[in-house]
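Example 3.
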Amino acid sequence: MSKSLARVKTALHDAGLAAQPVEMAAETRTAEQAAEAAGCALDQIVKSILFQGESGRLYLFLTAGGNRVDAARASALAGEPLGRADGQTVREVTGFAIGGVAPLGHLTPLPVWIDPRLLEFPLVWAAAGTPRHIFPAAPDDLARAAKATAAAFTG
Ligand code: 5CA
């Protein structure tokens, strides 16, 4: 099993979530692919989007599949100007490669916000550390496990 997948499983277990990552028959690198594989609405997919501040700090925005992070709103939440984090930085800080970044189980803890749109569904799906594994969770449970604060940051 990949180390990334194992780390997500451990983080889910440690947070008291019964959710199990599922290996999909097709790739789930993008929200569209994940929605297709899970057979759910695009907005039921949790995108784990990393932004980086001028300070170098990283911030995680758990975003509904069909929404986009608004940089100005995200910066206001973080308290410093933010830009998109590059793939290498994402990998160093989270331990996950783009396309499989999970909402929890990161190498380095970081501030996390969650898009209220995700909270409208009974169940959402998130990446589990690989471009082929996703896991289902009640969004409230996921928010608690990821230590995420609900806030409006999309535009
Ligand atoms: N496994 C899927 C569904 S959960 C997934 O990880 N989707 S995602 O949206 O969270 O991850 C893909 C996202 O990574 C893209 O939406 C994009 O925001 C970001 N991304 C893609 N390429 C890069 C890159 N080169 N640098 C930084 N971010 C990137």
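The longest strand covers residues 45-53. DSSP finds five helices and eight strands in the chain.
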